Amino acid sequence: MNKKSEKLRDALYTRDIVKVVGAHDALSAIIGENAGFDAIWASGLGISATHGVPDASILNMTEFLEAAEFMDQATSIPVIADCDTGFGEVNNVKRMIKEYERRGIAAVCIEDKQFPKRNSFLSGGQKLADINEFSTKIEIAKRTQTTDSFMVIARLESFIAGAGLEDALKRAKSYTEAGADAILVHSKAKNAEEVFSFSERWLEENKSVPLIVVPTTYNQVQIEELIIHKFKMVIYANQALRASVSSMQQVLHNIIHQGTSKFIEDEVAEVKKVFNLIGTDDLNQTQQWFDGRLDQYKRLGLGMNS
Ligand code: SPV
Ligand code: MG
């Protein structure tokens, strides 16, 4: 039983909308939880970026899984793992589900592109997977999971690839028939009309399967509008990553050009704040408990060296 996957499933069906933050490592996941998000998106772009490689199926499954696991261990909210195209074909998907579920990840998301995938915002053409092959990937994923609450999210790349609304609807239908627990409809449009047109048509037919959006390019959209259009989850996939990149660049540039770090102190977190974020209080308490206990052992004559 995985309490976090139950929590996520419950939230998806009972809340107006589930707010998810994209994280690239455990620290960004902790900051996301503290900010009030309901779940973590273990971002493929974010994890690739922190490893210094492009978001193009360069890292392998265990590297992505390890990063997601660190996020999971560091937080109390569920982790949804971005699993790109499922790391290969049907047997790779099977192993992926076994491993992610076993390690406590609440949900995985796979996208209907061909391996090796490229980040959806990269120009130069995106190749969609065959609809039947991708549907069988979803089916094997659902057959492989061993707990009821674990979720498999199918991500539609039809709009990203320029294949349009009808293609997206056809694929969403096939993926939900294959067992997908939710549909993530991705878009790189400058406004939300594309995803709204999808949700309107989709809800006419299949009200029960929750819809998810990633409003990166149509960033002016308000959460209230997403709720009105019946989206059940919103993922802010890369804002934390981008914030840390700009902040590091600015601060480090200033140190080099000013020849001192004195002037950046107001812009950066105090070391104490970092200590607090990473559980140093707990570490100290355990140490104090240990020291006290050791004294007791010595005084009472317990243990081997008494
Ligand atoms: C990611 O965060 O890796 C995603 C979302 O897949 S996006 O980069 O918007 O495609
Ligand atoms: Mg990704």
Automatic annotation (TrEMBL):
Alphabetical list of PANTHER family matching this protein: PHOSPHOENOLPYRUVATE CARBOXYLASE (PTHR42905), PHOSPHOENOLPYRUVATE PHOSPHOMUTASE (PTHR42905:SF7)
EC primary class: isomerase
Superkingdom assignment: Bacteria
CDD domains: ICL_PEPM
GO MF terms held by the record: phosphoenolpyruvate mutase activity
UniProt key word Isomerase: yes
A matching Pfam family: PEP_mutase
Family: Belongs to the isocitrate lyase/PEP mutase superfamily. PEP mutase family.
Coiled-coil residues: none
Source organism per UniProt: Fontibacillus solani
Record's keyword terms, sorted: Isomerase, Pyruvate
Listed name of the protein: phosphoenolpyruvate mutase
E.C. number(s) listed in UniProt: 5.4.2.9
InterPro entries hit by this protein: ICL/PEPM, PEnolPyrv_PMutase_core, Pyrv/PenolPyrv_kinase-like_dom, Pyrv_kinase-like_dom_sf
